[in-house]
TrEMBL record:
Organism: Folsomia candida (Springtail)
CDD domains: beta-trefoil_ABD_ABFB (cd23399), Tryp_SPc (cd00190)
Coiled coil feature spans: none
Protein name per Swiss-Prot or TrEMBL: Coagulation factor IX
PROSITE patterns given in the database record: TRYPSIN_DOM, TRYPSIN_HIS, TRYPSIN_SER
Main location: secreted
Gene Ontology terms describing biological process: L-arabinose metabolic process; proteolysis
Length: 380
């Protein structure tokens, strides 16, 4: 066995060949808070990385995790590396169901787009379901019957290896690439294996072609949020039909259904999510009925304010869009006050944490009060 550098990850490729710089510009490595590589991934688009869901299940690892692209030799800085933090994680909703490692696929949404160049490039994925498991484009494919004898697999998996060449620990989430004519296509994600390169014992990989629709949906939904009018609904149990809005230029949650000024309430609860004023990779909320005025925090309170050109306004009006607990749900984290999130409390809207510093920072229902669902615009 020899160690080789593949897209920045030192892979234990048995009987493999050394990678040359730029050979795998689509491959990234995932690093923990101690800068140790624990998994790999593939660039789908400047903001999206495909990896294995099982790589992203340990909260301790996710804390401080970074994604590094353009890294060929991990032992030295070559000046081609790009490091990004994680904005959101999209685990496949059926991961681990009904059998372990089934649907072992996830998309990492970065907090900032990668800059594409010679060293950092996306790789195409199948845009329609293609049965690569029956394709000659997969070298070292193993028969389904042999694979079933060695492990419990589903139709969402591909078996490869078993001839002394295989992926090993640390390779999880990395790509299996197929030749589609003269083009390379991402057709598999390293998932699991019983051993490491043992003859007759194959490795198991997630078949990317079975998830084309899911991948397209995640990427298109996230990209379509920006520059479109939306309303932002409260998710706290017991509070129904309330939305993030403004009244007298202060942030409130409004109930457009019972309001005597329902049209005004709908307009005051409609926002355009635009690229962040202080960071174009993040978001700013622009008012529907007061164009050119933005949601910002001042002394922790959320309010509506016009762009006065100041750096402070731009910072106060820029937010990370973080994944909530359920599909379609998000948290808005302050750009200049990390770990403080837009929260409603007694009808008012603040940026808050759960420190107990004062009533708005109460840990009671903090997760629920800071989670919002982005829905179709109430006003048009």
């Amino acid at each position: 066995m020899q160690n080789y550098s593949l897209g920045g990850v030192t892979l234990n490729i048995l009987l493999g060949s050394n990678a040359i710089p730029n050979e795998f510009p689509y491959q990234v490595n995932l690093r923990d808070i101690n800068n140790q590589i624990f998994c790999g991934g593939s660039i789908l688009a400047p903001l999206f990385i495909l990896t294995a869901a099982h790589c992203l299940q340990d909260p301790k690892i996710l804390n401080g995790m970074t994604v590094v692209a353009g890294d060929h030799t991990i032992s030295k800085d070559e000046g081609t590396e790009q490091s990004r933090k994680v904005g959101r994680i999209h685990n496949h909703p059926s991961y681990d169901k009904p059998t372990r490692y089934n649907n072992d696929i996830a998309i990492i949404q970065l907090d900032k787009k990668l800059e594409l160049n010679t060293f950092v490039q996306p790789i195409p994925w199948p845009k329609i379901a293609t049965d690569f498991a029956d394709s000659n484009s997969l070298e070292r494919q193993v028969s389904t019957s042999l694979c079933h004898r060695k492990a419990v697999i589903s139709n969402n998996m591909i078996c490869l290896g078993g001839d002394g060449r295989d992926s090993c620990q640390g390779d999880s989430g990395g790509p299996v690439v197929c030749n589609d004519g003269n083009n390379k296509v991402l057709c598999g994600v390293v998932s699991f294996g019983i051993s490491c390169g043992m003859t007759g014992v194959p490795g198991v990989y997630t078949d990317v072609s079975k998830y084309s629709t899911w991948i397209e949906k995640i990427i298109s939904n996230e990209q379509n949020v920006l520059n479109s009018w939306k309303s932002i609904r409260v998710t706290t149990p017991g509070i129904t039909d309330h939305y993030l809005g403004h009244k007298d230029f202060k942030g409130w949650i409004l109930n457009h259904v019972t309001s005597t000024q329902s049209q005004n309430g709908r307009e005051s609860s409609t926002w355009r999510l635009i690229p962040g004023l202080a960071n174009k990779q993040l978001v700013t909320l622009e008012s529907f009925n007061y164009p050119g005025q933005y949601l910002r925090h001042r002394n922790w309170r959320i309010e509506l304010s016009h762009d006065d050109g100041s750096t402070l306004l731009k910072l106060d009006a820029t937010f990370y869009l973080r994944k909530g607990e359920n599909p379609g749900e998000f948290k808005f984290e302050s750009y200049n006050y990390p770990q403080r999130f837009i929260r409603h409390y007694n009808g008012e809207v603040w940026i808050a944490d759960s420190s107990r510093y004062d009533s708005k920072d109460s840990p009671h229902l903090f997760k629920e009060d800071t989670t919002w669902k982005i829905v179709d615009a109430l006003a048009s």
